Amino acid sequence: MGWAARLLEIGGGIEGDDVLIPDEIARVESLSAMIEAVYGDLQDGHSLFSSHAILTPLNKDVKVINDQVLDRMPGQVQTYQSIDSIPPGEVQNQALYPAEYLNSIDTATLPLSSLRLKIGCVVILLRNLDASRGLCNGTRLRVDRFFPTLLQVTIISQGAYSGSSHFFPLIALYPSDSKLPFSFNRLQFPVRLAFAMPINEAQGQTLDKVGLFLPSKRFTHGHFYVALSRTRTGSEGIYLYTPDPTTRTLNNVVFREVFQRLHGPFEPI
């Protein structure tokens, strides 16, 4: 069976809840080995960043991986500290939630309060800024220059806008996925590091090499298919980490009733 046909069976849940890991997928035994396999010697520059990425299910692991890759890069770290505030009309909440607490809030739709960057690092855009110039939520970018209140970046996502240069100002951002009992805004550049990404945010990305960092065997709906289908080179462009290197299967969560309600065949993402 070809790789494309295998992916369709995984995506549609035809193979069942537990899927055999293809023999062609290379296995690595640590996060350090994963970073080296996907990105090579980071002292040699950043030519591979546009077509390589590490995917993992949980945001907490994304942050750990991004920090480790950034620390391996040559160059000096530039840290931008956000200004977090509660709207003026919410006087009571201003007293209850000081700036130090707001700075500690980490939600996937906001940049980190303390944003660490290096020249050449990869970031992902968190907002739709200007679709006519390719600046959409999920666009991958390379950081080219730092300014006190500006960031110069180049689009590295494939497409008509790849290679175009842009300047970002600091922007007041509100969390769109927060369950907090109050509202607040974060003045920060609208980006996060993107050497690693959550699997659910990798939809639409086409890559040459993908690392799958899977501390757990379990996924949510469609994650396994999305993770395996990001490479244009098939299974040979995938590196896999699991805590037990002898693991032969992974859990494939597919809600088949979703496809039944659509009354149509499964289509790739």
TrEMBL record:
CDD domains: SF1_C_RecD (cd18809). SUPFAM superfamilies: P-loop containing nucleoside triphosphate hydrolases. Residues 100-145 form the DNA helicase Pif1-like 2B domain. It holds the Pfam family Pif1_2B_dom. InterPro entries: P-loop_NTPase, Pif1-like_2B_dom. This is DNA helicase Pif1-like 2B domain-containing protein. The lineage of its organism: Eukaryota, Sar, Stramenopiles, Oomycota, Peronosporomycetes.
